[in-house]
User: Fold Adenosylmethionine-8-amino-7-oxononanoate aminotransferase from Kribbella jejuensis.
Amino acid sequence: MSDLLARDAELLWHPYSSLSSPSPVRLVRGASGVRLQLDDGAGGTVEAIDAMASWWCMIHGYRHPVLDAAVKSQVDSFSHVMFGGLTHEPAIRLASRLVEITPDPLQHVFFCDSGSVSVEVAIKLALQYQVARGRVGRTRMLTVRGGYHGDTFAPMSVCDPVNGMHSLFTGALKEQVFGPQPPADFDRSMDDPELQSWADAISALAAEHSDEIAAIIVEPVLQGAGGMYPYSPACLRVLRDLADRHGFLLIFDEIATGFGRTGTLFASEHAGVDPDILCVGKALTGGYLTLAAMLCTTEVASVVSNGPGGALMHGPTFMGNPLACAVALASLNLLLSQDWAARVRSISAGLSSGLSGALELPAVKDVRVIGAVGVVQLNGPVDLPTMTDAALRRGVWVRPFRDLVYTMPPYICTPGDITTITEAIVGAVEEAG
Assistant:
C-alpha cells in the first residue's frame, strides 16, 4: 500500500487539493452495499459506511446486481458510438423515461458528460433562446448568493462570487446578477416578513436588469456544495413569476437534489413549479458512470431550432454513451420500482433524531435535515484530516468541507446504518471540537 500511496502523491492531483501539501487519501480495496473496504496499512482492510454516497450519486450502494447486470449486458452489445448522426436504444429509452418522470412541460433531452457540463449547456441554450427572440442584449444570468453549479467556466460564474470555491477567478468570469440568498428555513411562507423582504429585493433586481438577463438559475429548495442550505419552496414561485413577467427562462439545477434526495422525486415539486430548463446528474446512473442531462420545453427547443444557427451549439464526444444510458435506465427503474419515498422519510427521521444531540456541543452552530440530507454546522472551519479520522474510527466515511460535517447516505441504508452514521458524526464533532 505504501508504494501505491507514494505514487499517488507523486502523480495524482485530487479535487480541491494541493500537490505540495496534499490532503491524506485512503486506498479503496473494494466496495459493496453501503460499505467501502479501505486498506488498513497493515495488509488488511477496514470497512466504513460511505455516508457520502460517493458525493451523493451511489443511491443504490455499490455492486448492486441489477446495475451490474445492465452494464455487463450493454458491454456485450457495444460500449460506445458517437451521437452525431447515430443513435441507440439505451439513449432513446432513457430519454423517454426522463420525460415521463420530470415535470410535464419538459419534453426534450440533451445528454451531457457531467453535471457541470449540463449547466454549461443550459446557459448556452438560454443565451441562444434570447438571441432567437431578438433580445441580443440579454447575456447575463440572475441567481442568488450561496449557490454552487459546477467547476467549469459558465457554472463558476453563477456560483457565489464571495463565499464560494471560485473567488480566485473573479475578473475572468462573466459578471452575472446576484440577488440575496433566500432566508434559511424550508417551512417559511410568504407571510414571513424576511421572505417578503427577500422577494421584494429579488423583484427589484430583476426589474432593474430585465434587459440584460437571459435566465434565472437556482438550485431549488436546497443549495448543495455552497453550504447545504435549505430554503422555502415559496421562493421558487417568486422566481417563476419573475421569469414569466420579464421574459426570462427559469433553469433549475437539480444535479444534487434530483431523484428523491429532498423527499420528492424532484425538489421543484415542493413548490409545484415547473422550470423551462432542468439539469440532472449525479444519481442519474446510480453512481456507476458519469452522465448528466439537460431537459427543456418544446417552446424553448422550437425557438432555438428556428433561430440563428438552427441548432443547439454543443456536442460532447461521449454524449449519450450507451453504457451510461443503460445503467441510468436500470437505476431509474430500480428506484421507481420501490417505495423510495418511504426510504427517504425513514432516513430523514433517523438523521433528525440521531443528529439532534449535536446541538448540545459547544462547537456546533446548527443542525438541519431535509430529506436524506443531514448537516451539522460548526462555529468555525472543519479540521478535515482530524474530523475524517475521528469518523473513520467509528466506522463511517465522511468528507466535510468549510464549517460543515454532513451526510447524504445511500437510500439502501438500514436504520442501523443511519444510527452508526449519526453516532459517528456526533462523536467525531465532539472529539475534534
Notes: The domain at 1-61+340-432 is CATH 3.90.1150.10 (Aspartate Aminotransferase, domain 1).
